[in-house]
Specification:
Length: about 300
């Protein structure tokens, strides 16, 4: 049949993968570093992928193509979800995360010194929610739990101060800046969907690289905000659902997206926009773009 379907210009495609994340049907994939339409019958012709493409490589055409097969799409989605769940389960059962190793070393030292602290089990088959050799309670009063994923608020001094022993000695008359991270964890994949620090918060959703490209990120963007970070190119999971849950389940006052100028960062911006729309809430938001040499290019 002749119908409307997407076309991907291979010369324009930069392989950022934003369209792959945007295509809920799984019709698009990366092949040899370029986006390709893998199956005609997975493409519904609605074009959710079009606005996510930073180079304008995707367009609509009319050509001979198999009809959209919703049943096949649903079956494929179920297959992918099952495979992903099995993979995560196998990974959790067979691997010990690096932060758990560090936690065990710290906790063993604390135990030897008679100190309590965050308790974690590394026994095979027990998992983080099970028993614990070391004993003790975390700050929330619960046994077990990875210290790296434990939600907590961070209280900061309100004003910058002088570090007379180190900083002022080398840079006389200058003020040492104070870190403005307001909570832990800060990775999008690790933050809880509901937490006290989200209530009434101004939310900053920042691409990982912005902290290294923009020198004064703490004072100019993080101060007074709850900051969560991620990289749509490196993280395997899509952010839309997680961000939507955070926005929907908390009293978020505003959202700022801080992204880099590189095309792959468009995935973070698009995920946030979709999450805001899907949440059903009307929240002020803006996007700030940072150049690779640390300049503010655009605020919208």
């Amino acid at each position: 049949m002749i119908r409307k379907i997407i076309h991907i210009d291979q010369d324009k495609c930069n392989g950022c993968g934003a369209c792959v994340s945007a295509c809920h049907e799984g019709a698009i994939g990366l092949v040899d570093g370029k986006a390709k339409l893998l199956r005609d019958d997975y493409c519904d012709g609605l074009g959710d992928c079009l606005p996510t493409c930073p180079t304008g490589a995707i367009s609509f055409i009319e050509r001979e193509a198999a009809a959209y097969n919703e049943a096949a799409v649903l079956a494929n989605q179920q297959k992918r979800q099952t495979k992903s769940a099995k993979g995560q389960s196998a990974s959790s059962a067979s691997q010990v995360e690096p932060d758990q190793v560090a936690a065990k070393i710290t906790l063993q030292a604390d135990a030897a010194a008679g100190v309590g602290g965050n308790c974690i089990s590394l026994d095979p088959g027990i998992g983080n929610s099970g028993g614990c050799k070391l004993g003790g309670l975390n700050p929330a009063g619960r046994v077990g739990g990875c210290p790296g994923k434990m939600a907590r608020a961070i209280k900061r001094q309100m004003e910058a101060n002088y570090d007379t022993e180190s900083f002022q000695a080398t840079v006389p008359g200058h003020i040492k800046p104070i870190a403005q991270l307001a909570q832990w964890p800060c990775q999008i994949r690790l933050v809880p969907i509901k937490a006290p620090y989200f209530q009434g918060a101004k939310l900053l959703i920042a691409a990982d690289c912005t902290a290294y490209a923009y020198a004064n990120i703490h004072q100019d963007f993080m101060k007074g905000k709850v900051t969560i970070i991620g990289c749509p190119k490196l993280d395997p999971a899509e952010y839309v659902e997680k961000l939507q849950q955070i926005i929907a389940n908390n009293d978020i006052k505003s959202v700022t997206v801080l992204r880099m100028e590189v095309p792959c960062c468009g995935g973070l911006e698009q995920a946030t926009i979709r999450a805001l729309k899907n949440s059903g809430k009307f929240i002020p938001w803006q996007v700030v773009t940072v150049s690779v040499d640390g300049r503010i290019l655009e605020q919208s």
